[in-house]
Hints:
The protein has 152 residues and is mainly beta. The protein has one domain (3-150): Beta Barrel (Lipocalin). It contains one helix and ten strands; from the N terminus they run H-E-E-E-E-E-E-E-E-E-E. The chain has a ten-stranded antiparallel beta barrel with strand order 1-2-3-4-5-6-7-8-9-10. The chain is globular, with a radius of gyration of 15 Å. It starts with a helix and ends with a strand. This is DUF1579 domain-containing protein.
Amino acid sequence: MDATARQEALRRLDVLVGEWVVEAEFAGGEAAAVGRSVFEWTLDGQFLVQRTKAPDPAPDSTAIVSVDLGTGAYTQHYFDARGVVRTYAMTFDGEVWRLLRERADFSPLHFQQRFTGRIEDDGDTVRGAWELAKLGSREWERDFGLTYRRSR
């Protein structure tokens, strides 16, 4: 991957930069829990950092998105208030944001996880959901919905 392609991969993430209200929709029809998330560039724009004050019962977290110099693939490095550390394979085409964890890394893998979010036409809303699957299974179940609404 050349420097121009890497910069383009990083530039695609610009749509996420800013402050967001985060609404989590858990099972049981409860009212949406509300938190906040901030996306910002760090280290001369080489990494995108996401800091989240999560809605209960989810933990607060920090995630760092990097671009692989060789392949152009994104990786999200995730850390949370429980001490959990994970890496997610990430794709982002400017409209659809996907995270996937199918193997153990810094934390044991008790289940597979994936997130799919779609940026709406206004560019200020991302609607998505986290899903879980038993190890080795391809049958995904919804864990919770997650909606980001840009506040700034």
